[in-house]
């Protein structure tokens, strides 16, 4: 099953031009509590575009560069430093990530995910142009996300839709 899932991930990543390494980070899966708390601190103090850039940088570090274990500050803070404009800001966000406020945000985000039906990763919540919100589980359902959002299919479209 694991080999098949990895192959499916390769197919979808290629189709949607999502970069990733030919292997998974080791060990896998990994705990990410410190990273999540730090991202909550960033969410509380920085513009949304900065949070988006932090997610993108962490994704690339973990899934493309195989930085591991990603939850160790010595591994994820250098990644965030590049986005946040320096080591000092990244350390400040890490420290704020241990605050009651950031922990409360993470707990709220987790509860919201469960209320929206999340039961595994990746879990996507997509809201279309008419305000209809739906949850989708798994990379093999990206085509359904595209359809729900009303996005145009390029080329021959997605022939196999689950």
From TrEMBL:
GO molecular function, one term: glutathione transferase activity
Every DSBA-like thioredoxin domain range: 1-149
Origin superkingdom: Eukaryota
Pfam families: DSBA
GO cellular component: mitochondrion; peroxisome
One GO BP: glutathione metabolic process
PANTHER family on file: GLUTATHIONE S-TRANSFERASE KAPPA (PTHR42943), GLUTATHIONE S-TRANSFERASE KAPPA 1 (PTHR42943:SF2)
Official protein name in the record: DSBA-like thioredoxin domain-containing protein
């Amino acid at each position: 099953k694991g080999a098949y899932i990895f192959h499916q991930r390769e197919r979808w990543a290629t189709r949607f031009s999502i970069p990733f390494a030919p292997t998974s980070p080791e060990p896998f899966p990994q705990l990410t509590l410190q990273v999540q708390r730090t991202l909550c601190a960033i969410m509380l103090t920085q513009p949304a575009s900065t949070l988006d850039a932090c997610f993108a940088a962490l994704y690339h570090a973990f899934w493309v560069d195989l930085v591991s274990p990603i939850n160790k500050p010595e591994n994820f803070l250098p990644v965030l430093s590049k986005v946040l404009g320096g080591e000092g800001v990244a350390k400040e966000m890490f420290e704020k990530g241990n605050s009651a406020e950031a922990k409360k945000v993470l707990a709220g985000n987790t509860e919201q995910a469960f209320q929206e039906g999340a039961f595994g990763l990746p879990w996507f919540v997509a809201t279309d142009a008419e305000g209809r919100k739906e949850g989708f589980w798994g990379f093999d359902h990206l085509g359904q996300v595209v359809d729900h959002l009303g996005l145009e299919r390029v080329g021959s479209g997605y022939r196999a839709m689950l």
